[in-house]
Amino acid sequence: xSEEDVQLEARLEEQAVFEPPESFVEQANISxxxxxxxxxxxxxxxxxQAADLLDWEDSYDQVLDDSNPPFYEWFTGxxxxxxxxxxxxxxxxxxxxxxxxxxxxxxxxxxxxYTYEELHREVNEFAAALREQGVGEDDVVxxxxxMIPQLPIAMLACARIGAPHSVVFxxxxxxxxxxxxxxxxxxxxxxxxxxxxRGDPLDHLExxxxxxxxxxxxxxxxxxxxxxxxxxxxxxxxxxxQVAFDELSAAHEGESVEPVSRDAEDMLFLxxxxxxxxxxxxxxxxxxxxxxxxxxTSQAVLDIKPDDTYFCSADIGWITGHSYIIYGxxxxxxxxxxxxxxxxxxxxxxxxxxxxxxEATQLYTAPxxxxxxxxxxxxxPDSHDLSSLRLLGTVGEPINPRAWKWxxxxxxxxxxxxxxxxxxxxxxxxxxxxxxxxxxMKPGSAGPPLPGLSADIVDVSGSPVEAGKAGYLVVNKPxxxxxxxxYKNDERFIDEYWREYSDIDSDDPEDWVxxxxxxxKIDQDGYITVLGRVDDVLNVSGHRLGTMEIESAIVGVEGVxxxxxxGGNHEIKGEAVYAYVITEDGADEDEExxxxxxxxxxxxxxxxxxxxxxxFTPELPKTRSGKIMRRLLEDIANGEExxxxxxLRNPDVVSDIATKVRxx
Length: 664
Ligand code: WT7
Prior knowledge:
Elements: H1 3-14, H2 22-27, H3 34-41, H4 48-51, E1 62-65, E2 73-76, E3 79-80, H5 82-86, H6 91-94, E4 98-103, E5 112-115, H7 116-132, E6 141-143, H8 150-161, E7 165-167, H9 174-183, E8 188-192, E9 194-197, E10 200-203, H10 205-213, E11 221-225, E12 242-244, H11 245-250, E13 262-263, E14 267-273, E15 281-286, H12 288-300, E16 309-312, H13 319-331, E17 335-339, H14 350-358, E18 362-365, H15 367-376, H16 379-382, E19 391-395, H17 401-411, E20 418-421, E21 455-458, E22 471-475, H18 490-497, E23 518-522, E24 528-533, E25 537-540, E26 543-546, H19 547-555, E27 560-570, E28 574-583, H20 591-604, E29 613-616, H21 630-637, H22 652-662
Parallel strand pairs: 4-17, 6-7, 6-8, 7-14, 8-11, 11-12, 16-17, 16-18, 18-19, 19-20, 28-29
Antiparallel strand pairs: 1-2, 3-13, 4-5, 9-10, 14-15, 21-22, 22-23, 23-24, 25-26, 27-28
């Protein structure tokens, strides 16, 4: 490092507050801080600004119907179609402009640009095909696909005919697919033959087929997108209900399908996410509220403009990809990038190469990725021209100030604002973050609630805690992008998100408070730092995993008597899975069993849930009432001082396990 660099590093390290760069503010979609007061004074009518970003077939009568909390309804009486809003309405002005820039794994020069015109054609053909296969309005179509263009095409085709989609992350296991198809009674699946990972073809259809065996009802159609190049394919005979995606579309070449008029409150999609219990939660999002909110936050926070080439490196199999690769950006008529591969193949500069090649204007990624980039070294970004970037964003987990500053300096060249956006699958879109052209940035803190939102940090009784003290994050007012319920389970919806801090017998919306199950603290300026989940959910590389789901996979393994799963700190992943296991025969080491345990977790959930460590122990630390003390197991995993163990039924067990894990 040069002397100058050293000084710069030292300055950055000390700096706690960063002003939005002047060059950014000058051109920002929002640069007037008056928007906060304006939204507050004018609530809930302020949200018309979001609805106005869309084309409505019938305009709505009421912005918010809060007569039956927590079953809020937004833009009631309005009707619209999401696919028409994301595709058709841009045709006149932007038909020849790129809607999606698809960048494939570099197995061949096979990147594809889809103009709005081309996307429109593909979406219509596949919509016609789905309809011919019998898909009707409100039939749930499951998608189990990696980052290939047929995924957004299928999603938008579903939206066009009013069939909600349920996208299952391609890295999830066959079992996870079956569970989700069963929970949604989904009779249609769109999947693919395979895809490439680090240059090697991967058999995806085998996993899909295995999942289909676990589906407890008849499956009408399985559409198979054929991604693998000739010669790379795996041998699969298609079953009677299986047909190639392209063949389906080809049979409807040039056809157009009138977008179905959907009520604002009609379901646009379902997305399953992990909760405290083993059963995944089917989060229901609607057409009017969700889409307006995705579009508005894309404009306000990501500063998206039609001429941008916007790059979000998330996977569409998660909510980030739904809201901020597909729905938000396409609703605004911009160019959205879609990258199939990993950031380190063929080399660790892959993302920087893509940004340079496509002159990307925004990058939205996860702290876990930033920590990996840091570790790989700044020579990778430094060897590319990243000057097209105007804004950087992060999402998925807390970002440590060091990683924030590295991102700000080495990717943004200190001239791009960084938005640290806190939100959830359930919220549909961003909730806490600075507005990039308005608010100062404080590395490590997401920022204040967006205009029109109201959040607090409270103690167990629901009273606000002092600035600087840790408490629970709560959201006090509804917002358009909020989940409407858990699919076919209103009771669980209330239990999971509302019961804790609401007066659930009241009809007064003031008495209803949303609880996201995150711990947080707030500073004097109202900036919120989110500390992490307070339920039994882990955040591994920005992905949400339920400890119960992992535990139930482990106790299903022959030879296992009991298991407890907790999160331990991990340099890159944020959190990693630690599994404590009691064996039936009391063995304190069993390599063969360890392998079977790891395999069982991968089979039940997927490789992302793979335990970092499996620790065999003769006992688990339990309170006198028999509750496992997870906090102690976390401390052990993190190599921390062990707190008070005197209330345990079996205090010695803790030091025994600790000795084993640390090897001391
Ligand atoms: C959980 C939601 C939001 C899309 C991706 C994850 C954590 C998310 C942040 C952030 C600190 C964050 C929370 C939240 N989280 N963003 N900027 N700072 N924590 O969606 O899978 O529904 O997970 O991710 O714990 O509750 P998800």
